[in-house]
Amino acid sequence: MAGAQPQQRRRCRFPALLASVFATVLLLFSPAAGAVEKGANRSSLLGQPRQWATGKDEGEILAEAEARGRGGEDSEAGEQGREFESLDGMLQWAIGNSDPDKLREKAEEIESLSADELLKRQLEIKELMEKLRMPSDAELMKIAIADLNNSSASLEDRKRALQELFVLVEPIDNANDLEKLGGLIPLIQELNNADEGIRTTSAWVLGKASQNNALVQNQILRYGALERLVKMGYSSSEAEAAKALYAISSLIRDNEHGQVLFLSENGYAMLQHILSTASNSVRLQRKVVSLLAYVADFQLSAGKSHAPFLSNHHFIRSVVHMISAPDLDLQEKALLAVRSLLQLTSDDAAGLHMFSGLDDSLEALRMQLNELTSNVDRREYALEVEVLRKEVQIMFQQKFNERPSQANLLCFQKLWCFVWC
Questions:
Q1: CA 25 to chain centroid
Q2: CA 28, 32, 34, 39 torsion: positive or negative?
Q3: Per the database record, which ranges form the Nucleotide exchange factor Fes1 domain (predicted)?
Q4: CA dihedral 365, 368, 369, 375 (to 10 degrees)
């Protein structure tokens, strides 16, 4: 809510010294210390006797405490970094590291308390335990979402809220709760934030929440987030563009409706921009051709013989051009994309025109790979890429009635057997 102060996150860890003091106070002033008969196990915080988790009675624990008390300062120094998994463990540790005589004195004092005083102690302890309770994921998500909805929250608080949501939405159940808790709208709104870091992290959270999750994919798509993410793909910031591509990939993966929306938002023009802009990094270009290869494979698996984005001939030629890129990993990903695109392309003159220059790019790559085979460290990888290159070349020749020579087919078979047999 506007004007409210950002809510503080609860922490569940305590320094060992604080834990010791706190746990000892709980033990000494708990009604359990005086409410049970002498000699009974006094481990309960709420006045009900129960067994120690260790199976030891109080006498054994106190005896161990006396022994540890004579152990010198080394063990004490080692306890400073201790952390506790539960209040029960904290109590047991505190008792074991306390002065037995003082414990007995305090227990006798508590035994003299009246019923009203004991009840008051119980209520105080219950209240304290409630404050120390570890909040659930849903509660933590609500706190983070409240910070995003708080117009007076600082930039730092917003960044922290987004970072916490990124971790919290990884489990699919938490991601599914994001819409129920009112988190999707503020997340999508943050894509328009003036701060690049906020925009980038928001896209990252949306991508994480929607990854392999059709429910969240469709929820985000209904809110129109794809339009803003496509615009972010044009960013001159590599980090922002990369996270936008990550979110887009998560939203349209295995989602035909998402792919249709991406086309309607002219998303492939954005992908072409990344491929054709010299200043863009190889990392971004790899992401683009990988995304395209996936979309093409999805269309093929759905039984489609054509894809709407193939009408963008400039985009396809940009992908073909990546086969001549200086990065071998990018070249391999471009080959995979072209292989799938060829299967979706008609074998007419328009299709041939779209892949103009492919022969030259494949030949240039062949010469490059031939040189790399002399490098012992890269020989195996170069041969694998050569098999893929040859496959694409033969597919291209067969597609457009350019019958591959018998020598080329024989060479391909030998290469394939050499690498995979």
A1: 41
A2: negative
A3: 87-178
A4: -160
